[in-house]
Each structure stands twice: as structure tokens, then as C-alpha cells.
Write a structure and sequence with these properties.
heterotrimer, A mainly alpha, B alpha/beta, C alpha/beta, A: mainly alpha, 24 helices, B: alpha/beta, 6 strands, about 20% strand, globular
Chain lengths: ~475, ~130, ~475
């Protein structure tokens, strides 16, 4: 019993600690609440006042005003200067001016900015850049950016590649907006990742510039930082720099998949003939998805010189989608060529892959577990049972092919495995296909098809079923 | 001198104050309202010469307000819509609802001034002709 | 001998309870710590600059909001109007009428001048789709209505996912009120991570009871007048704000409320959409997605936003509340059971070693232990074997801790949202915190036990045939 008497005391001790903490919280929260309420009231009144002042100062017309009005205006300005010496007031004023700044354009915007500078508010902001607190620094950067204070360019430049994400991103936006040479400097110096959101924002800012001598973005296609390359590619695309075509060869063989994909979209957009040799060389080394990219590029910009390559593709390729595309390209490039359908896959399958999800996007070569000759055998139905045996080892493309084969042979022995496929398949398009085939066997009772089981279990199960 | 009246509907205090100051400078009398409901009740007997309203408003959206003016009150008063949503969609919507002009935010006061001149037949100096009332 | 045995048993049970309780308290403390860190950071970030204007331009990605409706006749029009008036350019609203038995569809048809679309797109496995409707009015081109045979919330959501062709889909409750800027916040969260794929975004759910609402927008936030709703508000603050933010902070989040969850559509399709066989589909889908991504070894994350993007009406009637919680706990069991391989499975990293066990022990097991603990205590008391001092001390400690935690949640709520600031609201909430362990908590425990009971003993009546009646909270 002894250890529990001790335990009891400890428990009482804990209870006391918790109780005391609760009391502290209560007092603190109550005081905090009072402060919020008071502040709310005060700032509402001040806001009203501030908006009056801004209105008056903004639309004051020196030309038409009488002397007395001018005096009143100057007095008002002096008063305002004194008033904003208090930090709280200043913050309120700046907040209101920033809001207004986003809502007006043209002459009024310029007057607003002049007023901002006139009140020396930018000096306070520059001062804030030296703070050690990141939230103050980034707020100051934002303020200076929105007020177009180009003189803040140099001090803000120091925050590029800052360790703190918010500060860094804010500084990037500032550098790009404040000066025209900003984007080049940024692309030269950036060492960090650039989020998609940030890239969108940068492009948006640059696009909204009226006159803009943009640099040639191909300069950064071979940068070390993959973020830099992506942004440069996107910028080249956004500004239609078709001159970058000759620099895309390196991009489409870059080790990072996203960059390669962006590269292909540019190749297609600009019809970059220069990269054809690279694409031809690279074709057999890359995965199914990327081959599609290459084929699409040839579809849009191929000519008679590429017929040889396309015929090679047509004879060596094993995936039906690719074959179809290759065939289409050949029809387009050499409509009069003699057709010789030597690829066995073509005879076994003539169904398109509808509704395929793009699940398989990994950076790996395509699985070639199903070779052409095996497939044709399947087509003849000699190995009805074994067709689905390897099913769960396949990628989605091959799974579709297998199902196609099954739907051809209509072998009743496949039914049990088909059921398994319906039960375990995670890809809906494929699952639907399997369901359809089962229906064609006259089996309809399978309604609940949304269960998922890890793959290794399935393969075990499928082997056991056999 | 007879002043013409502008009805201004926007929930942003600073923007409204600024804009009404601007309109006053153009020698317009400004009725500034914060939301769609207040605007509707004002319109029951008030007859502004021009309506400037934001798309996003508390209580009733700007579109609804415009529809109310056109369909229920059947007024032909010129309506200028201002919106921070600058898109084809918003433009079409406001024009379909019955607005005369759609101006995106950030608002260029020069453009607004031109529109006012167009609808209210301002003198080149910016003052409103008063003898036509 | 006989007495001795009881003594040992008694001590043993006490020890188990003590260890369990202490672990629980410790994990709560850690959660509070993580939450505080995450929130401080998030608050500061969100104070700087507003949502970018990018999102109103044509660069904004496309989003579909899917809102299933079942017998919502009374409120459906207001709800749809509210959904159509969000501040975002590129989105559509897919309302799925899940075989309502009242006039829901008729009302929508007449109010929005809907016309049947030609052709029905390729169908997911699921209940039959009767028709797809769009409005003739150009201004309503964002609205799509899918009418289908009743099949439950999951099935309705699947139909919407199937129809949508947009990059992101949001699955929401139709009676939820969304913040006009909700979509911009969501998209920003999706695009924020440079290194990982953000597959889902959820948000804090706030209580809409007694709030001033007009035209589908929360005009003024007020504390609910109803006490049951007040308790729930406190509970929501604790679990949705504190708990889930903390889990989000260590990337171990296992649930995004069905009232407001946005997903990358492709990922949802890959995992086969929502499970129609469970009542906890919102939790199950997250488990599924997480497992899928882990198994495919794609770096990913979920994002959880503390901004009040979604307001919902909570039940003010004890019976409805119990039904709701009963359903939650059943969903919980079903999901945990379905994904049991994750339990302490190092392959799933933090999820398997931390999140799943937490859910298992403290979301599922804790209410049961509390319930049976009560009986044990009664039995021991009857046998005269109870160690009163120890019992009182333990109870007192747990009580003080619960109150402390609630007050902490209230302070954060005040700090971040600055709502409920009046003296009256404040004291009202504190009273809730003080009385909750006696008055509200037993109700929650009871519902959980009832859910477990139903699940264990009436397994066979299950949900296979789907005869669910509605899924709205109220």
C-alpha cells in the first residue's frame, strides 16, 4: 500500500499545479480580453479619423486652393507628422494606406505614394528591416514593395536566400517588383527551392509590368538550382521567348522529372526543331509517360526526316498507346508509306485506353513484363489462367492490356481472378474495366468494390487462389 | 447651385472616404452607404443621378443590388460597378445584371472621372452643368 | 488470501489506470506545446500581407466544390447561393442530390432555372445517376446539379468526383457556410510546399449557432445561446484548433473533417474515392490516401489551416448529438479496423508509430475504459475495497487538468480569432470549461460506448445495403 500513499501525494501535487496554472491562465485571458476590447474601440475611432485625413491630403489641389486653405493643409500635415510619431498610430496609418494603395491606380496611386514618402514613413520601414524578428522584417519589406520605394532595393537585396522562408519569399517579390534588373539578379543568386505559389506570383508581377526589358531566360537553363531552372522555363513560356529553343536539349534530359516535363511543353510550344536528335537518342532510355511526351512533340513538329525514327518506334514499341500515336504520326508524316503491321500487339488489341488515370509517373523505365509474343499468345487464349497471374506485378498500362486480352478470350477460368481484381484494384478506371468484363460474363452482383488491401497481400492471395 | 447626387456603396471605410472626397471635388453630393441593405432602403425614396457600387457587399451582393435597381425599381440611372475581382466572368455578370460600366480595382480615378463626365455631362473643368435640372 | 488477491488486483488496476492517465495527460501537454509553436508561427505569417490577387486571375487553378444534399429542402437554396458567391474565379459548385425524398431537387430546379444536360459522363461504380442539370442563366454557369439514386454521402461525393474535371475537389457539407476567401486560402496551402506534394487541405470548423448570418455569409460571430452548443464549441476549439493543429504540426494528421476537406482530385481517384461501406468516410479517406502515398513512396503532406474557413451548425438537441457521436465512433472503429496493418508498423513511420496508436488508445479505447472504470469503481466500492484517497486524488488531478486544458484552448481562441470577447461570453465559456467534465463529457462517453456496442453486437445489420438516412449534422 505504501507506494500508493506516496502516489496519492504526488497526484495531489499535480492537481495543485494544474489548478494554479488554470488560475494564471484565467487571469491572463481575462486581462487580455479587456485589452482586445479596448483596442478595438480605439482603433475603430482612429480609423475613421485617418481615412478623413488621407482623403483630404490626397485630393488637395494646390493650384485652386486659397491661401487660407493652403495654410490649413500644411497645418494638417504637421499635425499628422506629430501624430504618427507614436508607433501605434503610425502602424494604423500605414495599414490604411497600404489597403488603399491596392485599391487605387493611376494618378491617385502616385499621390498616395508621394504622401507616404512625404510623411517619411519609408524611413521607419527601412529601420524595421534591421529588426531581429522575422515578422517585423517581412512586414517592412512588404510595405516598401507596395509603396514602390526603389531606394530600398539594396537593403532588401540582403535578404535573398535568407534562412527564414517568409522573409526570403517577401524579399524575392520585393527585388523583382522594385527594379527591372531584379529578376536577373534574383535568378543569378537564388539558391533555395521556389514553391509553385511563389513562381506564380513572380510571373504575375512581371507580366503586369508595362514596359519591361526582360533578360533571355535560357541563361538560367543550366543553373545548379532546379528551382531556378523551373522558374526560368516558366518565364520563357510566359513571355514567349521562342529563342530559347536551342537551349532545350539539356532541359529535356535533366535528372528531375518536373523540369523535363516543363521542357517538353516548351518544345511543343515553340516547335523546337533543335532538340529532335536528343529526343531520338533519349527515347529508348525513358519511361512510358515521357515517351508519350516525345511522340506528341513529333506529332506536332515532325517532318519527312523523322519517318525513319518513327518507323523504328513503330516496330520496337510494345505499348499500345505509343503504337497508336506512332501510327498516327507516320500517317501524318508519310501518308503514302506501305503499311506493314509487323508489331504483334496491334493484332491483339484495338481498344483505346479510356479513363486511365496518370498514376504511373515514377522515374523508372517502363516495366516490360508483358512482351509482345506473350501478349499474342494471350490473345489466342492458350494460357487463359496465367494471364492474370502476374496482374498485380504490373503497372497500370499493362494491367489494362491484360484485361483487354481477357475480354477477348472470354475464358471462364478467369472469373475468379477477375473478381479478385475487382475487389483489390485501386485504380478506378481499371476496376471499372474489370467490372465490365465480369458483366459480360453475366456476373452482376459485385457492388461493393471500394476495398483496398496492400499489394503484397494480394499477390500472395492471387497465388494461393491458383 | 443644384448639386447632383451620387450613391456610393462600398464596405471599405478608407476607400469610401477617399472616393467620396474625390466625388465631392467633382461637385457631386455623395450618399455613402456601407452595405446592400442600406442601399436598398435608401433607394426606396432617394433618387441618385449615378450609382457607384462594389461587387462584394455585406447582405446583398452588388449584382443583386443592380438587379434590384433595374428590375424592381426600373430605374435607368447609370451604374458603375467596381470590383477587386478582375475577370471576364465578373465583367459579364455585372453587365448582364444591368451595370453600365465595370471598373476593376485598383481603380484609376482618371478613368472613373472620364466615366462620370460621360454619364453626367460634366464640363471640361470637371464641374457639373447645373442648368439642365 | 482472498483479500490479498483483491488487493493485488486493486493495486494492479490502479496502476494501469494511472499509467494510462499519465500518458494521456503527457501527450496532451506535448500537443499543446506543438500547437503553441505552430500557431505562433502561423499567426505571424498570416498577419503579413493578404491573400494574393493571383487567385482572382486566370492563373488560379480550377476547383470543384462537391456538396451532397439529402432532404435539405428548407435550406438548400440559401446554401447554394452562399456557395456560389465565393471570392474566387475559377471554380464550380457540384450539388449532388442523393435521392432526396422531399422537394430538394424541385426547389433547386425552379430557383436556378435548371435544364437537363445531354449525356451522362462515364460512371463510377455507384448508384445510378438520374440526370445532370445546369442552369440556362449565364450568371449561374458555375452550378452543376447531379441527381442520383440514394446511396449515402460517400456515394454522392464519388459521383461528384467522377463528374469533376478540375485539379482540386472540395468535399463539404452543403449546410456549411464558407468564408468568402476560403478557396484562395486552400489553393495557397496546396501550392505552398516546394518539396512535397500537398494532397489534402482541411480547416478548423467553427460553430455557427446563434451567429448573425445573412445571405450565406457569417456577418457577426456570436457565442451560441444553447448550452449544448456551447460545450461543443469548447470541444471543437480543443480538438479542431488545438488537437488537429498539433497533429498537423508534426504531419501526423489522420482526419480532415467531412465538413470541409479539399483534395487533389487525381489522388482521390487513385485511391478509389470514398469508401461507401463506412460511416466514417472522411477519416477513412485520409487513412487511405496516407497509406497510398506512403506505399508509393511519394513525398507528400497534408495541410491544416487554423483560419475560420468553415462554419457549421452543431446539434442543440441531446438526442441528435448522441446519434452524431455514436456515428463518429462507429466510423472510427471501422476505419481503425480496416487499416489495422498500420498499428505500430514502422513502415508507416510516424503514422504507424504515433498517430494510429493515439487514435487506437485515446480516441477508441479511452471512452470504453472510462465507462468500465466507472463500473469497476462501483464494484470495488460495494466490496469496500476502494482506496478512497487515491481515487479522489486521481479524479481531482484529471479534473484540474481537463479544466486547465480547456482554459488554455479558450485563451488561444481569443488570441487568434478575437471573437467571444465580451465579459458575458468569457464567463460563459469558463463555466463551460468547469462543468464540462460532469455534464457534457458523460454524454460523449455514452455515445461512444453505444457506438461500440452497436458495432460489436449488430455487426451484420451493417451498412452494406446503404439505407442511410441523411448525413447532415442537424
Amino acid at each position: 500500500m505504501e507506494q500508493f500513499t506516496m502516489g496519492t501525494e504526488v497526484l495531489y501535487g499535480f492537481a495543485k499545479v494544474f489548478g494554479a496554472t488554470t488560475l494564471c491562465y484565467l487571469v491572463f485571458v481575462f486581462l487580455y480580453r479587456t485589452r482586445i476590447v479596448r483596442r478595438k474601440k480605439q482603433s475603430a475611432a482612429k480609423k475613421e479619423e485617418i481615412s478623413q485625413w488621407i482623403g483630404e491630403l490626397l485630393f488637395f489641389d494646390f493650384g485652386e486652393a486659397s491661401n487660407r486653405e493652403k495654410e490649413a493643409y500644411l497645418l494638417k500635415k504637421t499635425q499628422l507628422r506629430e501624430w504618427i510619431a507614436v508607433k501605434e498610430n503610425r502602424e494604423l496609418l500605414v495599414a490604411q494606406m497600404l489597403r488603399l494603395r491596392l485599391d487605387v491606380a493611376g494618378e491617385a496611386k502616385n499621390t498616395l505614394i508621394t504622401l507616404y514618402k512625404d510623411l517619411n514613413l519609408h524611413l521607419y520601414a527601412v529601420q524595421n528591416l534591421k529588426s531581429w524578428r522575422w515578422e517585423i522584417v517581412s512586414a517592412a519589406i512588404l510595405e516598401l514593395t507596395q509603396m514602390h520605394m526603389a531606394e530600398a532595393y539594396i537593403p532588401i537585396r540582403g535578404f535573398l536566400n535568407d534562412k527564414r522562408k517568409v522573409v526570403r519569399e517577401q524579399a524575392e517579390i520585393a527585388i523583382i517588383s522594385l527594379k527591372e534588373e531584379g529578376i536577373a539578379h534574383y535568378l543569378d543568386t537564388v539558391k533555395t527551392e521556389i514553391s509553385e505559389w511563389q513562381q506564380l506570383k513572380i510571373i504575375e508581377i512581371l507580366k503586369s509590368r508595362n514596359q519591361f526589358n526582360m533578360p533571355n531566360f535560357e541563361k538560367w537553363f543550366s543553373a545548379h538550382n532546379s528551382g531556378t531552372i523551373m522558374l526560368a522555363l516558366r518565364l520563357a513560356e510566359a513571355f514567349g521567348q521562342s529563342g530559347v529553343s536551342s537551349h532545350l536539349s539539356d532541359v529535356i534530359v535533366h535528372k528531375q522529372k518536373e523540369i523535363r516535363e516543363l521542357g517538353y511543353s516548351l518544345v511543343q510550344k515553340f516547335g523546337a526543331e533543335e532538340v529532335k536528335p536528343t529526343m531520338k537518342l533519349y527515347y529508348w532510355k525513358c519511361s512510358g509517360d515521357e515517351r508519350l511526351n516525345i511522340l506528341q512533340a513529333f506529332y506536332s513538329m515532325g517532318n519527312h526526316e523523322d519517318v525513319g525514327f518513327m518507323e523504328e518506334v513503330y516496330h520496337r514499341e510494345t505499348s499500345e498507346t505509343h503504337l497508336d500515336l506512332a501510327n498516327k504520326i507516320l500517317d501524318k508524316l508519310a501518308p503514302n508509306r506501305a503499311k506493314k503491321d509487323t508489331n504483334p500487339i496491334r493484332e491483339a488489341h484495338d481498344r483505346p485506353f479510356e479513363g486511365m488515370s496518370t498514376e504511373e509517373k515514377g522515374d523508372r523505365p517502363p516495366i516490360k513484363l508483358v512482351q509482345g509474343d506473350t501478349m499474342s499468345k494471350m490473345g489466342e487464349g492458350t494460357h487463359g489462367l496465367s494471364i492474370l497471374n502476374t496482374y498485380f506485378d504490373q503497372d497500370n498500362f499493362n494491367r489494362m492490356l491484360l484485361l483487354d486480352a481477357v475480354s477477348k478470350t472470354k475464358d471462364k477460368e478467369d472469373i475468379s481472378l477477375l473478381r479478385l481484381v475487382v475487389a483489390k484494384e485501386t485504380n478506378l478506371a481499371i476496376k471499372i474495366k474489370a467490372l465490365e468484363i465480369l458483366r459480360s460474363f453475366g456476373i452482376n452482383e459485385l457492388e461493393d468494390v471500394s476495398k483496398t488491401v496492400p499489394l503484397h497481400d494480394l499477390i500472395k492471395e492471387s497465388r494461393a487462389t491458383r | 447651385m443644384l448639386y447632383r447626387t451620387a450613391m456610393l456603396v462600398d464596405d471599405d471605410l478608407v476607400f469610401t472616404t477617399m472616393l467620396s472626397r474625390f466625388l465631392q471635388q467633382k461637385k457631386l453630393r455623395v450618399h455613402s452607404l456601407k452595405d446592400g441593405r442600406a442601399a436598398k432602403s435608401y433607394l426606396l425614396d432617394g433618387r441618385p443621378d449615378i450609382v457607384i457600387c462594389d461587387v462584394v457587399l455585406p447582405y446583398h451582393s452588388g449584382f443583386e443590388l443592380v438587379k434590384f435597381i433595374r428590375k424592381e425599381l426600373e430605374l435607368l440611372v447609370p451604374i458603375i460597378m467596381i470590383s477587386s475581382i478582375d475577370s471576364e466572368n465578373a465583367l459579364n455578370k455585372s453587365l448582364v445584371a444591368g451595370a453600365n460600366v465595370f471598373l476593376p480595382k485598383p481603380l484609376d480615378l482618371g478613368v472613373l472621372s472620364d466615366q462620370l463626365a460621360h454619364f453626367l455631362k460634366l464640363e471640361p473643368s470637371g464641374n457639373i452643368l447645373t442648368n439642365k435640372m | 488470501m482472498y483479500n490479498n488477491l483483491y488487493d493485488i488486483l486493486n493495486n494492479y488496476l490502479n496502476l494501469v489506470f494511472l499509467v494510462f492517465t499519465l500518458t494521456l495527460l503527457l501527450s496532451f501537454l506535448v500537443m499543446a506545446l506543438i500547437f503553441t509553436r505552430v500557431s505562433f508561427h502561423h499567426n505571424k505569417v498570416s498577419q503579413i500581407g493578404s491573400i494574393s490577387k493571383v487567385m482572382n486571375s486566370n492563373m488560379a487553378p480550377s476547383i470543384s466544390i462537391i456538396a451532397p444534399a439529402y432532404n435539405e429542402e428548407a435550406t438548400i437554396i440559401e446554401n447554394i447561393k452562399s456557395l456560389l458567391s465565393l471570392r474566387y474565379d475559377n471554380y464550380e459548385v457540384i450539388v449532388v442530390n442523393d435521392g432526396s425524398r422531399d422537394g430538394t431537387l424541385d426547389k433547386i430546379m425552379t430557383s436556378f432555372e435548371l435544364v437537363k444536360e445531354e449525356g451522362i459522363p462515364a460512371q463510377f461504380p455507384g448508384k445510378r445517376i438520374r440526370g445532370i442539370y445546369k442552369s440556362e442563366d449565364k450568371q449561374l454557369d458555375r452550378l452543376v446539379v447531379i441527381d442520383k439514386v440514394n446511396g449515402g454521402k460517400s456515394d454522392a461525393l464519388n459521383a461528384g468526383i467522377n463528374y469533376s474535371r478540375n485539379r482540386f475537389v472540395g468535399c463539404i457539407d452543403v449546410d456549411c457556410l464558407l468564408n468568402p476567401d476560403a478557396l484562395s486560402h486552400v489553393v495557397r496551402a496546396f501550392y505552398q510546399e516546394p518539396k512535397k506534394k500537398v494532397v489534402a487541405v482541411g480547416s478548423v470548423i467553427r460553430v455557427a449557432n446563434s451567429c448573425k448570418i445573412s445571405e450565406g455569409v457569417v456577418e457577426q460571430v456570436r457565442l451560441p445561446k444553447n448550452w449544448l452548443a456551447k460545450y461543443q464549441l469548447l470541444e471543437y476549439t480543443r480538438s479542431f484548433l488545438l488537437g488537429r493543429m498539433a497533429w498537423g504540426g508534426i504531419d501526423g494528421l489522420l482526419i480532415i473533417s467531412g465538413a470541409f476537406g479539399f483534395f487533389e482530385r487525381e489522388v482521390l481517384v487513385e485511391v478509389g474515392g470514398y469508401d461507401t461501406g463506412t460511416v466514417g468516410e472522411d477519416m477513412e479517406v485520409i487513412f487511405k490516401i496516407r497509406r497510398h502515398m506512403t506505399e508509393k513512396k511519394i513525398p507528400y503532406t497534408l495541410s491544416y489551416l487554423p483560419e475560420p474557413l468553415c462554419y457549421t451548425e452543431v446539434p442543440e438537441d441531446a438526442k441528435i448529438l448522441i446519434n452524431q457521436r455514436d456515428r463518429w465512433s462507429r466510423g472510427n472503429i471501422e476505419t481503425l479496423k480496416k487499416h489495422k496493418v498500420m498499428f505500430f508498423n514502422p513502415r508507416y513511420g510516424r503514422l504507424g508509430m504515433l498517430s494510429y496508436p493515439y487514435w487506437f488508445f485515446y480516441e477508441w479505447l479511452a471512452p470504453l475504459l472510462e465507462f468500465f472504470g466507472l463500473f469497476t469503481i462501483l464494484a470495488f466500492w460495494y466490496a469496500g475495497l476502494i482506496n478512497w484517497q487515491f481515487f479522489v486524488a486521481l479524479t481531482l488531478m484529471v479534473y484540474m487538468f481537463a479544466v486547465m486544458f480547456s482554459i488554455y484552448a479558450i485563451s488561444w481562441d481569443l488570441y487568434t480569432y478575437r471573437q467571444y470577447t465580451s465579459k458575458r461570453d468569457f464567463f460563459s465559456l469558463v463555466t463551460c470549461a468547469l462543468t464540462e467534465p460532469f455534464l457534457f463529457h458523460p454524454l460523449v462517453v455514452y455515445s461512444a460506448v453505444r457506438g461500440n456496442f452497436k458495432k460489436i453486437f449488430k455487426q451484420k445489420s451493417g451498412w452494406g445495403t446503404i439505407t442511410r438516412k441523411g448525413f447532415s449534422n442537424s
